[in-house]
Amino acid sequence: AVYGARKMEDYGRFLALLVSALLVGFVSVIFSLVWVFHYREGLSWDGSTREFNWHPVLIITGFVFIQGIAIIVYRLPWTWKCSKVLMKFIHAGLNTIAMILAIVSMVAVFEYHNAGNIPNMYSLHSWIGLAAVIFYSLQLFLGFAVFLLPFAPVSLRTAVMPIHVYSGLTIFATVIATALMGITEKLIFSLRSNPAYSESPPEATLVNCLGVLLVIFGIFILWMASRPYWKRPPEENAKALLTTGGTPEGTEAESTMTDGGNADESDLRSNSEAARKQNLKLDEAGQRSTM
Amino acid sequence: AVYGARKMEDYGRFLALLVSALLVGFVSVIFSLVWVFHYREGLSWDGSTREFNWHPVLIITGFVFIQGIAIIVYRLPWTWKCSKVLMKFIHAGLNTIAMILAIVSMVAVFEYHNAGNIPNMYSLHSWIGLAAVIFYSLQLFLGFAVFLLPFAPVSLRTAVMPIHVYSGLTIFATVIATALMGITEKLIFSLRSNPAYSESPPEATLVNCLGVLLVIFGIFILWMASRPYWKRPPEENAKALLTTGGTPEGTEAESTMTDGGNADESDLRSNSEAARKQNLKLDEAGQRSTM
Hints:
Chains A, B: Homodimer. Chains A, B: One of its GO terms (cellular component) is lysosomal membrane. Chains A, B: Its EC number is 7.2.1.3. Chains A, B: Keywords: Cell membrane, Electron transport, Heme, Iron, Membrane, Metal-binding, Oxidoreductase, Translocase, Transmembrane, Transmembrane helix, Transport. Two copies of one chain form a homodimer. Chain A is an all-alpha fold. Chain A has one domain (11-233): Up-down Bundle (Four Helix Bundle (Hemerythrin (Met), subunit A)). Chain A is 71% helix and 0% strand. Chain A is built from nine helices and no strands. In chain A, helix 3 (54-72) packs parallel to helix 7 (202-226) and helix 5 (124-148) runs antiparallel to helix 6 (154-190). Chain A is globular. The model of chain A is unreliable at 244-291 (pLDDT under 50). The interface between A and B is large, with 63 and 62 residues.
């Protein structure tokens, strides 16, 4: 009974955090639209500054917000009754959407630069941003090949999983850092005088707040992704295995960035300790912790 | 024997990573000095742009490099024979040095702005940078009160530890993101024309590379900090407890961002599993995983 109460309380905390993250992410997208439509001539695809404007909108919508959701999709408790392979397709699908939006948003910048004879790829923002898109695409391709296609041996999945998780979270953080550089650049370039950025006009305040929201969104997502007690439980996995006719084999690496519970959660912790042991016996290797 | 070989190999990997991180951090400091002395009139404390120049040098030396070392100081295998409380003093001491250097570097910017009638605190860089310094100072103060002073009960230490670890790593990542914004700002402001930033003069290339090095340094440090198999082993802790006359009490939260080994390390992993169990019995709560 006490354990049940703890579990409910923990579920409530997860939901509160999830709703906060979604809210912050949603408000970020709104802020990017207000920026672009209220302060900067809106959107179009004509080589003008309005084509450039797709860049912040698509990056914040796709490369930050959708990527953030893709990262925590395994953590949603109501998905634990779904098969693991379905969740992998959702994880990969959301990341594919994010990748496409990121690439389109880069095309918008290149076309805008070329139309206005502005050099490409000279800024630190462009260097790290392009590297992030390349590594993100590589990560998606390798993740698909190793974890979704049925060819990779268990030992390979187990070896790749910690790298997949760490590089995924690192790329996400790097994307947010790159967005902050982009905001800085764009505010300096578009607020040169009357008013200048340094005079703190409303546009500058709005977009600075957008930057702060992106950092808060990242902090929420990475916290949810790195709590071990919010992981998809392995039992469901085993169930899914049985229904799809797979056979449990080998052991599995604990591959989520993990950070044990606190005193209030000793019940929960010892439960997850038990689950981990069960997991070592039952689970298919490398399958559980794609997040 | 196989286990010993694995352990040696793992030690070698840790050393290789540590040397790489130190090298990247060291080269970053050198790059900041080359930037300031070769391209930007050097350093002084006179309200001129040379006073501003202390800002990047002190941030990269203190708030990035020294903070990075403070984060991984518990991971250095040759410190495992030292008492835990000594290591805590070193961790807190390095973070205190980093905090002082960060504050001095902020004073340099405020004095430079005030001397030249440039507004303060208008940019996203300044907002997030000031927030990072404030949270860093709070983190240091709370860490000292909870983990170094002998008054906090075990339950409090256990509850605070995961938050201490997560906010420490998050602040470190945010500091690097803020440095990237600062680099972007400074290159745009100081390379307006003849040459402009967009013409990619050598200074721009050097400082862009500095930004890339900071990201690589962060990736190395956070990887080392989040591998569970490189944690300070609990046995040494128990030994230290015995020699200082402390009594083992309670259980301890697993508080490092953890991400289990891969297939090659199954021996190591089962060893750390055993160590964790022993730890639950022996270790003093909240003491072990200050990193």
